[in-house]
Amino acid sequence: MSSLSRPSLAEHSTPIKEGDAAPSVTFRTRTRIESDDENPFDWNDVTSEDYFKGKKAVIFSLPGAFTPTCSSTHLPGYEAAYEEMKSLGVDEVYCISVNDAFVMRQWGIHQGLAEDKTVGSNGFEKVKLVPDGSALFTRGMGMSATWEQERGFGERSWRYSAVINDMKVEKLFIEGGEVIQDFGPDPFGVSDAGTMLNYLKSSSK
Fold first, then answer.
1. Whole-model pTM above 0.90?
2. If DSSP states are collapsed to H, E and C, what string results for 6-27?
């Protein structure tokens, strides 16, 4: 690695455990406003508590918007399973990535997600795309991974999924069981929508 490299800190790459509290951070999002402008949005701070307090949420996180597996399988799988997850007692489904709000919106549009054009909305009708541009939530989850030589990504999120129930991590699926820095392969076997659906079905009995 270069002398200018800044690998992820160990405490930011050690996954939290089931039963732990989800990290309390502020996400810099864009909310729709009343405007005829081609970009009718303004900045809106949304906290972890806004997303998770008093709610049961499914989250899945991935290395980056527009990247192959994230775009071809990971996000589409959850979008297709959205209504079924809601029927199993989930209040909302969130996709979290270390990208800014502008990139996340354009990715959603490119993926064909239906935008929620209601004034005050934060994105899309089904799966909500959450920008963790500064990686604060990702670090708090212990999922920070830096890809330098492999992909030139810099700091991103390891691929995982979780159920967060009233700010507590109820269930956690981590690809490979651990975070590995600058890892060549892109494992995708347990954070998929099918695995999450199976868990939700078994836990709702």
1. yes
2. CCCCHHHCCCCCCCCECCCCEE
